[in-house]
């Protein structure tokens, strides 16, 4: 029989047993299960190391909680819609459904090979009609509640993917520019704001870089298109999404910060400018710097502003400009603009200001209009320079050295006001508040950078939007009874295959029965993943997307683990959905996730391991167990780590060690019944390890749990080599190892558990409990370690080749008493108690008096104490009897290490060693 652990065979066997015994299915009557969830995978075809790390983390935690006695909900499903399937289908001459189904089969098999413990009875697949019908149903509920808008919008269009993209799906890339410099566009400038806190772009003012906006998926530069689009009005929740971040204490700060920046809350004010001959009467601008209002020299509105539209009707130049901007990519807009015939009235000075339509003013930021303050704002300064507008300084730098000419650029900091009427000579901060309070034309206001969520996609492989367009009735929602609107068969065509399906496109209006056109846009796949965690609660429910009672009981998700790249898209949408569903009375929670863990990246040669870089290690290459154990023991889940064969070896060796120990125990037996001192030491080590590992699992520090386990294995091995081990003590240690490693390496745990005749399956076993109160353990261990170190020191310095007998002598009882008194005094006064009075106090103590120690001895000891700087530790000194017991049970370590007899005893009355021994520091004599 071999002691080698044959992982393939072992894995298969236990996977079979787990399935046979149905160990991962959530109990029928579970009241409030611990919900552990990993972000479900996109069905790309194969499992990569990022997935494995993600799911190894949730699996370990889920298993740990299960052993702790929790009902655990740990489900798995498939994020199965999306463009790549369509592209793959195109390339491989198949259809997205067949392709996706094949991917799912393969990936599920891979997950099973890894031995992850999912409740597969809850598997969900978003491209199945029984899932996506609920997307449609929810779309309708959101629509009815006013959270859906259909409007013409100038949107991001990826020419390669042939679809629109949400704002969050457009990435900004830096491109070198040869001749132009500092030609920042309005859009780039506004995004600069969004990111300024992460300082990706901030600070490269005037460099020869420009920003290109590209598709997040294929990196093709995006265009602008004007299209009728569907939006979820996530901006309705901007304030709540922002404010609630504060309370998400279980979320990483980094993720919260990214969301905060993305939502982009800005405090400022609204300022009203009367505009002559405008049917709207006046234009509101949003400003964060109301104190600069006296420096406003023009008013500018975005090309989409009502005023611009109105002027365009009569003014050809305006009309032409508005049209050009509409077709331009935001990065091309720059600081062009047209002056209009309109005139605005400055609300405080009554001065007449020119009105411009300018592309750098963004339609959906603030009010879509600005007051131009060229002296103190970068963009306004550039615009004014280009259009020869006056630059009026109203803030003077408070220190003269900052005073530069306005030709050189705006002064954007705070300072002292000038040319500002009654506010002259006051500081910016003061005026900022006062001017708003003192003038009706200015009112406090908060705006958010967040935009509505554009959810329509001109692609096939997604949830059809349940709408028909009727010539007479406009857009009409498909009645609930007719859901799902099923995807017709795929046809190979350029553009959207749904457009090519006459039978799909032609519909009857549900309201009037007249001819209608079915909506051919499908939903962004992020809609699918915004609520899938709810579907897992009741995956087969047929009359609702989820069971609201269960949701009330089981939510929020206790622990959610996934990649950090989802900080804004998925994780923000999920929060939005939860809040909207709460307002639809479908949920009683307003946040979906309690603990969020962003897992770090697996690196290979310093680079992210990814198929596009060609540096992948296939998860199965080293066997499930080694891979799982390695990804968990390599680093804290939130840290990146480097994949190296050498480190993988460590994980492999640990398995062999544990397996070898269990096997040898069973096969060789040879244990002892009589219980000795050093068995107590081992028993205590086992308890300590259980306590430590438990704490590490609780804190998600699997790597430290692995180290503790390894350490116990080492001690147990030494114990066994030292002497025949005590049968029960040793077996308890080995069983503990099997149980403690089981969440991370379940096959190995099961195999060892089984060899040791543990009760039932380890996956269903109770988590081991430490037997003792471990409060004092740390002090205890420290005593053992420092004593061993002292012995080593003496052996070394005295160059004792072959010690025969090592004597450890515990200090006399009165010294412990002195320490206790000294500690009390240090506590009471914290003042410099002179040693004389300490001696008196000690001698007056009854306990000491009884011992009949002479005054001089005490005085010497006390004087010695006074010179030490670790007096604060005195109160932690163990009792004399405890110290004796600890040294007795650990003396085998001395014997083992130095191959000498170890003798532990208390100091006798006329013991020459008694003088040297101190509490916590036994005297040592070596012969
Ligand atoms: C007047 C002003 C004076 C402003 C000043 C700034 C400095 P930041 O500053 O980037 O955080 N703004 C408002 N709505 C806008 C829109 N739709 N498109 C483009 N710009 C817009 O953003 C706040 C400032 O952005 C606002 O404060 C406004 O310019 C501009 F010395 O108002 B400010
Ligand atoms: Zn109709």
From TrEMBL:
Domain spans labelled Leucyl-tRNA synthetase editing: 260-437
GO biological process: leucyl-tRNA aminoacylation
A Pfam family annotated for this UniProt entry: tRNA-synt_1_2
Catalytic activity: tRNA(Leu) + L-leucine + ATP = L-leucyl-tRNA(Leu) + AMP + diphosphate
Biased composition (Basic and acidic residues): 189-198
Region of interest: Disordered: 172-208
Annotated Aminoacyl-tRNA synthetase class Ia domain residues: 450-642
Enzyme class: ligase
GO MF annotation: an example: leucine-tRNA ligase activity
Domain of life the protein comes from: Archaea
Domain Methionyl/Valyl/Leucyl/Isoleucyl-tRNA synthetase anticodon-binding: 679-797
Similarity section: Belongs to the class-I aminoacyl-tRNA synthetase family.
PANTHER family linked: LEUCINE--TRNA LIGASE, MITOCHONDRIAL, LEUCYL-TRNA SYNTHETASE
Protein name as annotated: leucine--tRNA ligase
Record gene name: leuS
């Amino acid at each position: 029989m071999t002691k080698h652990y044959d992982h393939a065979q072992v894995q298969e066997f236990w996977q079979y047993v787990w399935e046979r015994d149905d160990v991962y299915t959530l109990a029928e009557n579970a009241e409030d299960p611990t919900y552990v969830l990993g972000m479900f995978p996109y069905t790309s075809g194969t499992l990569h190391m990022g997935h494995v790390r993600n799911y190894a983390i949730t699996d370990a935690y889920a298993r740990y909680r299960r052993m702790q006695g929790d009902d655990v909900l740990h489900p798995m499903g498939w994020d199965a819609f999306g463009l790549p399937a369509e592209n793959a289908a195109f390339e491989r001459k198949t259809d997205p459904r067949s392709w996706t189904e094949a991917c799912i089969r393969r990936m599920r098999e891979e997950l099973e090979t890894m031995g992850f413990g999912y409740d597969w009875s809850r598997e969900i697949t978003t491209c199945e009609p029984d899932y996506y019908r609920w997307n449609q149903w929810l779309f309708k509920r959101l629509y009815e509640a006013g959270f859906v808008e259909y409007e013409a919008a100038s949107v991001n269009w990826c020419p390669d993917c042939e679809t629109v993209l949400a704002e969050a799906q457009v990435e900004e890339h830096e491109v070198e520019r040869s001749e132009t410099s500092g030609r920042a566009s309005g859009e780039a400038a506004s995004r600069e704001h969004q990111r300024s806190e992460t300082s990706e772009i901030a600070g490269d003012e005037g460099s020869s870089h420009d920003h290109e906006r590209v598709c997040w998926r294929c990196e093709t530069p995006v265009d602008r298109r004007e299209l009728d689009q569907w939006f979820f009005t996530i901006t309705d929740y901007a304030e709540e999404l922002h404010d609630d971040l504060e309370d998400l204490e279980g979320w990483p700060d980094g993720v919260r910060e990214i969301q905060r920046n993305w939502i982009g809350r800005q405090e400022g004010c609204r300022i009203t400018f009367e505009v002559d001959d405008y049917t709207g009467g006046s234009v509101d601008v949003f400003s964060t710097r109301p104190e600069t209002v006296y420096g406003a020299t023009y008013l500018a509105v975005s090309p989409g502003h009502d005023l611009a539209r109105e002027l365009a009707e009569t003014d050809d130049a305006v009309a032409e400009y508005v049209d050009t901007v509409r077709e331009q990519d935001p990065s091309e807009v720059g600081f062009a603009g047209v002056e209009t015939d309109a005139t605005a009235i400055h609300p405080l000075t009554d001065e007449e200001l020119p009105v411009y339509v300018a592309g750098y003013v963004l339609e959906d930021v603030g009010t879509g209009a600005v007051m131009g303050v060229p002296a103190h704002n970068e963009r306004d300064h550039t615009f004014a320079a280009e259009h020869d507008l006056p630059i009026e300084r109203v803030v003077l730098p408070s220190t003269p050295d900052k005073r530069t000419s306005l030709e050189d650029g705006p002064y954007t900091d705070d300072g002292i006001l000038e040319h500002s009427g009654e506010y002259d000579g006051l500081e910016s901060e003061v005026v900022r508040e006062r001017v708003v309070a003192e003038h009706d034309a200015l009112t406090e206001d908060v705006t958010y950078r967040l935009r509505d969520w554009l959810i329509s996609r001109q692609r096939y492989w997604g949830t059809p939007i349940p709408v028909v367009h009727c010539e007479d009735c406009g857009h009409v929602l498909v009645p609930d009874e007719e859901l799902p609107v099923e995807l017709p068969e795929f046809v190979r065509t350029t553009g959207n295959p749904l457009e090519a399906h006459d039978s799909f496109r032609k519909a009857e209006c549900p309201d009037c029965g007249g001819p209608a056109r079915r909506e051919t846009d499908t939903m962004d796949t992020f809609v699918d993943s915004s609520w899938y965690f709810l579907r897992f609660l009741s995956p087969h429910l047929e009359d609702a997307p989820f069971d609201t009672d269960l949701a009330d009981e089981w939510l929020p998700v206790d622990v959610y683990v996934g990649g950090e790249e989802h900080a804004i898209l998925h994780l923000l949408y999920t929060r939005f959905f939860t809040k909207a569903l709460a307002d639809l009375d479908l949920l009683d929670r307003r946040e979906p996730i309690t603990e969020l863990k962003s897992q770090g990246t697996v690196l290979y040669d310093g680079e992210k391991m990814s198929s596009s870089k060609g540096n992948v290690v296939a998860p199965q290459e080293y066997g499930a167990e080694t891979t799982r154990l390695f990804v968990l023991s390599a680093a804290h889940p939130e840290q990146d780590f480097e994949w190296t064969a050498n480190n993988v070896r460590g994980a492999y060796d640990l398995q062999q060690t544990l397996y070898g120990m269990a096997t040898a125990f069973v096969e060789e037996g040879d244990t002892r019944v009589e219980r000795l001192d050093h068995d107590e030491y081992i028993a205590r080590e086992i308890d300590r390890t259980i306590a430590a590992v438990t704490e590490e699992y609780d804190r998600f520090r699997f790597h430290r749990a692995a180290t503790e386990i390894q350490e116990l294995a080492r001690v147990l091995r030494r114990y066994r080599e030292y002497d025949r081990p005590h049968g029960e003590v040793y077996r308890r240690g080995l069983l503990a190892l099997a149980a403690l490693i089981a969440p991370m390496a379940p096959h190995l745990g099961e195999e060892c558990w089984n060899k040791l005749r543990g009760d039932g399956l380890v996956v269903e076993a109770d988590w081991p409990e430490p037997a003792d109160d471990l409060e004092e353990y740390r002090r205890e261990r420290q005593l053992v370690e420092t004593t061993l170190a002292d012995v080593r020191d003496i052996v070394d310095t005295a160059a004792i080749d072959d010690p025969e007998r090592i004597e450890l002598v515990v200090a006399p009882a009165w010294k412990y008493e002195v320490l206790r008194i000294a500690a009390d005094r240090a506590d009471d006064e914290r003042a410099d108690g002179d040693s004389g009075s300490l001696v008196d106090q000690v001698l007056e103590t009854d306990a000491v008096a009884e011992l009949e120690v002479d005054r001089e001895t005490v005085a010497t000891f006390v004087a010695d104490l006074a010179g030490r700087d670790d007096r604060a530790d005195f109160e932690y000194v163990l009792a004399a009897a405890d110290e004796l017991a600890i040294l007795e049970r650990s003396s085998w370590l001395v014997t083992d290490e130095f191959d000498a007899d170890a003798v532990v005893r208390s100091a006798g009355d006329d013991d020459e060693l008694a003088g040297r021994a101190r509490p916590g520091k036994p005297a040592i004599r070596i012969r």
